[in-house]
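Hey, can you fold this one?
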Amino acid sequence: MKNNDNKTLKKLAILVIGSMIAAYGITLALYAGFGGATLAVLWQGFARTFHISIGAASFVVAVGMILFALIYDKSQIQIGTVLYQIVYSACVDLFANCHIYSTYKWINFIIMLLGVVLFAVGTGLYALASLGRGSYEAVTFALAEKNHWQIKFVRMALDILVVVTGVLLGGKFGVCTIVTVIISGPIIQFVNAKAKQVLKI
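Sure. Predicted structure:
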């Protein structure tokens, strides 16, 4: 029993640390001036439309996705889904004013790249905890598994829907959006595999 408790605590710690790293990375990238990551474009749109913070917007969007997944396929939602989002959204606002950017665009571009990498590293760690999918992933898998659709096509369709909706609400599509789509997946996969070996989860 004690070993199981220790393993659960270890997973919770990894989830929280991963969530914080991911939140810092996405915030670092978001304010660099090159647009937002796919979901962050929607957060920007919500924040500008309803005059709320980015962190609050991310939480509102996540709650909507979690409710959809609960109705559509509740097996996708676990304790980690909720805990991750609480930590993540709180940290997005916490880190929003912690960044120093340059007057040179090329330096800010490097900062943006660093942010995307950190976001992917944090996401890879969070996924390692295996305590439930994130809200966006829960919606993706719920639609794919219930309808027997391929995950990659569902995610592509959702990404397009999220970005277009975000832009219509005032969010900013840019280089960051494209870079996140291209490099985050491979980094998440690499970090997840390496961390699994090192941390023995």
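The mean pLDDT is 88. Let me know if you want another pass with a different chain boundary.
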